Amino acid sequence: MIFENPAGAPELACNACGCRWFDRMTGACYECGEPVSPRDVEAYHAALRAFHARAGIRPNDDSKERQMAERWFEDYLPGAVHELGTVAVDEAEVLEFARRFDPQPIHTDPELAARGPFGGVIASGWHTGSLMMRLYALNYLSPASSLASPGVDELRWLQPVRPGDTLAVRVTVEDARASASKPDRGVVRSLIECFNQHGEPVMTMRAVNMVARRPAGA
Fold first, then answer.
1. Which of 36, 80, 111, 217 has the fewest other C-beta atoms within 10 Å?
2. Any idea what the Cα angle at residue 142 is, between residues 66 and 25, rounded to 5°?
3. How much is the pLDDT for 5?
4. CA nearest to 208, candidates 141, 135, 139
5. Residue 68: its pLDDT value, please?
6. Using one digit for the tens of pLDDT, what is the confidence trace for 115-126?
7. Model-level pTM?
8. Helices 125-139 and 91-101: crossing angle, nearest 10°?
9. Reduced to 3 states, what is the DSSP secondary structure of residue 133?
């Protein structure tokens, strides 16, 4: 099924369970294993083309998978804005993540959290970052060219993220410079913004990525 994320971009969700994550190799839903209908994929790409036309976006190719496989340093154009899709915040995942990695009552204990400053459990900021990272890795970085990251700057958690929220991720290319010492790569600096279903910013950060340059003939 096709729906619009908070940024107005179309998204494809599983008809069986509503999951928005699909295995790129098999085309099956990660949650329930149901294959994506070719008709839905075709409708999604048609909606995406219409969104690009309205927004003035001119992607290199209508296929997201092909874009990711072929995106090189030269394709990260300063000023370009990329909508990476949405992800649901699941309560069981919030509790499991926090109990393993951030065991504070506001993240792990619904009873205590209900009496706390947020009136209920909220996701660890590191969990929010992990949800963002999945979309960033799949829909912004390319397996062909992504080399590594020396770090991030200005990480901010602006609003509490709660179970049941839906987060949308938007990335703006702020700067892309060829390396002076290693001519086979460049450095891309990006502003990452996460919004909840109300359009409120919940997390922002600036990421630095080392990206390979397009090989000759590619």
1. 217
2. 55
3. 57
4. 141
5. 53
6. 999 999 999 999
7. 0.69
8. 110
9. helix
CA distances from 217 to 187, 201, 213 (A): 22, 41, 12
Tokens of 24: 């790129």
User: Residue 194 in contact with residue 173, Cβ under 8 Å?
Assistant: no
pLDDT < 50 stretches in the chain = 6, 23-25, 58-66
End-to-end CA distance of the chain: 35
Nearest Cα neighbor of 59 from 72, 49, 69, 44 is 49
* CA distances for 67 relative to 64, 71, 76, 153, 196, angstroms: 5, 6, 12, 27, 26
The CATH superfamily of 70-212 is Hotdog Thioesterase (3.10.129.10)
Give how far the C-alpha of residue 133 lies from the chain's centroid of Cα atoms, to the nearest Å: 6
Q: Are 203 and 170 in contact (CB under 8 A)?
A: no
CA-based nearest residue to 207, from 161, 162, 169: 169
Q: Where in the chain is the domain with CATH 3.10.129.10?
A: 70-212
pLDDT value of position 40: 78
Cα dihedral angle (177, 180, 186, 189), rounded to 10 degrees?
Answer: -40
Please give the sequence-ordered ranges of beta strands (E in DSSP) within the chain, or none if there are none.
2-4, 10-12, 81-88, 146-157, 166-178, 185-195, 201-212
Beta strands 185-195 and 201-212, pairing class: antiparallel
Alpha helices (H) in the chain, listed in sequence order: 38-55, 64-70, 91-101, 105-108, 110-114, 125-139
